[in-house]
Amino acid sequence: MTTRLDVPTVSQAAYETLHRMILSGQFVPGQWIKEREITEILGISRTPVRDALRMLERERLLVSIPHRGFRIPVPTVKELHDYYELRAELEGMAARLASERATDSDIQTLNNLWESAQSSLLAHDVTTLAERNDEFHRHLAACTDNDELVASLLRLRAGIDLYRNLSWAQKPRPAHTLQQHQHILFCVTNRNALAAQESARVHIMDSLSIALQGLATFQSNSGAK
Amino acid sequence: MTTRLDVPTVSQAAYETLHRMILSGQFVPGQWIKEREITEILGISRTPVRDALRMLERERLLVSIPHRGFRIPVPTVKELHDYYELRAELEGMAARLASERATDSDIQTLNNLWESAQSSLLAHDVTTLAERNDEFHRHLAACTDNDELVASLLRLRAGIDLYRNLSWAQKPRPAHTLQQHQHILFCVTNRNALAAQESARVHIMDSLSIALQGLATFQSNSGAK
DNA sequence: CATAAGTATTTTGTATACAATGTGATGGAG
DNA sequence: CTCCATCACATTGTATACAAAATACTTATG
Fold first, then answer.
1. Residues in chain A closer than 8 A to B146 (CB atoms)
2. CATH number of the domain that B28 lies in?
3. What is the pTM of this model?
4. What separation in angstroms does the CA of B105 have from each of B179, B185, B193, B200, B224?
5. In this predicted model, what pLDDT tens digit does every residue of B168-215 receive, in sequence order?
6. A40: Cβ under 7 Å from strand D?
């Protein structure tokens, strides 16, 4: 299952490796990503590394500053707020459209994902739990059949995952999350589009407060430097 | 007023030049952008050109295919539909939040922009008219004070402008556009958030039909090849 | 004449060398 | 001791050369 998928170019491979490294929290917010270091780690030259970094910049996993290079972004409180406010709107849109467009099979899949998450919670398997919850959101978006929306949400979620796995991140309350997912699913099943939209919005805004707490902790910690 | 602003790097300059060239319709949808050509046009080497192309890919003004290069995207009907559906949601969000957050000064600015657009229409100055209408949308988004939303809308609008100036694009009905802008502004002024959201949504969805007509014309024209 | 294989050419991908810029240390003046 | 100028070093920016892949063309073959 750990099959290494062959990618057509070195740049692409570097992109995927760095993508995993960033999202798994291997770097600290604010850290400068030096091209030389990456070339040594991956054993390739600077050209494909720069290519990969620009691709990562595209997803906001890095920010570039001319003549300074690339770094892991450090969100301000306002940026985090804006980020979540937008994501709340889009997840709400997804829930609304899913209520109108999801097939019975889609709803069955969402049910299965929710129950699998529930089992993982009871088994204290937080890794699988998080994975199932992510899948739940992804599949809800997929039900809308709007690829632009799916892509936008993927990007926003990646930007948030960036920080979720980091040292300062507060862990979400899993039972609370599951309960909210259940409520969204309930609305979608009953084709209650507006209620689904509102549930999804509330759900995201709840996680904002958790993120803000975590950021405050991080800032007071690193401010000690 | 045509002052050339100095940019810190050649890549950045190339990016801005190409950005203008693409948005002003200098390339045909589906056209391959060859690195060599760009180096000769701009008198620079391939490295900063590749850099600039990747930056443009970030805004979906280009798409890259490994070992083939970059090309101007050709939208399908479904892609165009998804694009506009998402933009309608975000412009609606912007109008809603603007109703709640716009200052009196903001509303005054929107009024001025609308009246300037109106004058341009009467003077048959379509260039200024389009510019003012764009500014109207930009400033409406700015009123929300959500930078993520502003950036997302900028990106979506650029993707649409890409096609608007092209040969196949139908011209919008200016009087109709102005009337809809006036209605949005009316709702914002009265702090009627939900009505503003709905007006903005309808406004965008109206322009979808125009775009679809244009795309159909383009496809039947180029299909003759 | 159509088709397919093989070769030539074009184009992108990668590596490396050099230039330009930014950072940090060093040392002197106030 | 603090501040500022200067210089050395580190890092990114750019150009160019070569490698690999894709395309176009030619030619042989049915």
1. 82, 85-86
2. 1.10.10.10
3. 0.90
4. 22, 13, 18, 21, 53
5. 667 778 899 999 999 999 999 999 999 999 999 999 999 888 888 877
6. no
